[in-house]
Write a structure and sequence with these properties.
Number of helices of chain B: 0
Number of helices of chain A: 0
Largest sheet of chain A: 6 strands, mixed
Structural class of chain B: mainly beta
Oligomer: heterodimer
Radius of gyration of chain A: 13 Å
Largest interface: A-B, 21 and 20 residues
Chain lengths: 112, 117
Amino acid sequence: GEDVEQSLFLSVREGDSSVINCTYTDSSSTYLYWYKQEPGAGLQLLTYIFSNMDMKQDQRLTVLLNKKDKHLSLRIADTQTGDSAIYFCAERRNNAGNMLTFGGGTRLMVKP
Amino acid sequence: GAVVSQHPSWVICKSGTSVKIECRSLDFQATTMFWYRQFPKQSLMLMATSNEGSKATYEQGVEKDKFLINHASLTLSTLTVTSAHPEDSSFYICSARRTSSGANVLTFGAGSRLTVL
């Protein structure tokens, strides 16, 4: 299998936590990434995790990786309206050089 | 697996001419395709969203008359750079959204490098 899958849409209230989920199928993945795309802007790398880690925290962002289930999540604490964007997860496979395989993106809408 | 083919992968043209770039989903149907532009050492910049059978939705700042997008079938979207100028030289990438079985998966093409002399 070659897919990286995400749900299409997530809506949360300002101040709540957001959890965006991603599943992948290739066990040879070395790095997994989260990108943010705001309207009219390019993809912005938010954070990444190496496949031998199970958690990485960076300020309000927490990435959890379950290698056994091939499941990656991005938790945004204290979600703000400025966090509204499309979030893409991506994987770099061991045999694919610098190529990344992207999920379809999850649109996060933060309501005031 | 899902494959998105872009053609041409590399094109050089004279200033003032038009260039067409094709994006094809080879083994799946894509109701939605996306066109991106990438400047050197920068991220992908979404230009427009192409929906089969309807007009493309352009991002702010992208000239619709300059970058014509046609999504005439479920497997083909085209981007035409009209009256190209040197500042249009860039790397153009398409992606196609596959929604079979309820999954939301984007597959990217390998990109087309345009150089306008």
